[in-house]
Design goal:
Blueprint (H helix, E strand, L loop, with lengths): L2 H18 L6 H22 L5 H23 L3
Length: about 80
């Protein structure tokens, strides 16, 4: 998948994930979380499948973003 598409899908997934988890983050933070989640989801998808559709990539980017947000919430209060 081209990097630009991965960034766009990840940014959208991050914004959606922060809204689903009712987190009050600014847009750039949500987008960065989404891109990192897309990387996590993309690696997982490549591990499971050799060919990907954009729908599958979006779902896994969303799941990766949700997992990253969950970890962030767990460790944010420990500072």
């Amino acid at each position: 998948m081209p990097v630009v598409v991965l960034i766009l899908v990840g940014a959208l997934a991050g914004v959606l994930a922060t809204r689903l988890m009712k987190m009050n983050t600014d847009l750039p933070t949500a987008m960065v979380i989404g891109v990192l989640g897309a990387v996590i989801g993309g690696l997982g998808f490549r591990f499971l499948m050799t060919s990907a559709s954009w729908v599958g990539a979006f779902v896994l980017a969303l799941l990766g973003s949700l997992a990253l947000l969950w970890l962030w919430q767990r460790f944010q209060g420990r500072r």
